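Case study 2.
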Amino acid sequence: MTSTQTTSKDLIEQLNLEPHLEGGYFCRTFASGHTINDRAAMSSIFYLLTKTNPIGHLHRNRSDILHFWQHGSPIHYTLVAPDGSLSEHVMGPDLAAGQQLQMLVPGGYWKASELHDGDHGLISEAVCPGFDFEDHHLATAEQIQREFPQHWPALKPLVSG
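Prediction:
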């Protein structure tokens, strides 16, 4: 099967992806045996958005996360920095159109991802120090309206629930 024929269903099966609490699908692919303060020094995942599950809802992590575009359609990201500045980025293969193959989201930034077109978009993430669900915070409408009222119209569709 060539990559142009690969579907989201194929990727979910072949990569052993499971539903993620923020939306989309994921599978942890690596956790370092080296530790920092009793946690993996680094971890990585595959993360997939699909046309039937197209939003990775707004959330924040403590660790830095380096994203790598892998396959499918571009994925659109909305980031909110701790100072309240909002930025948008697109991960995908069209470098001439300004798309990125890699993107760093520093710890403490709010992040949401969206698949606008196509069957799927697949990325990988490397997290340092390694991901721990204790460090993951899914945004609530009340929190985002209180902290970033100026961005609420843009962020509302990206907040879970």
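The mean pLDDT is 95.
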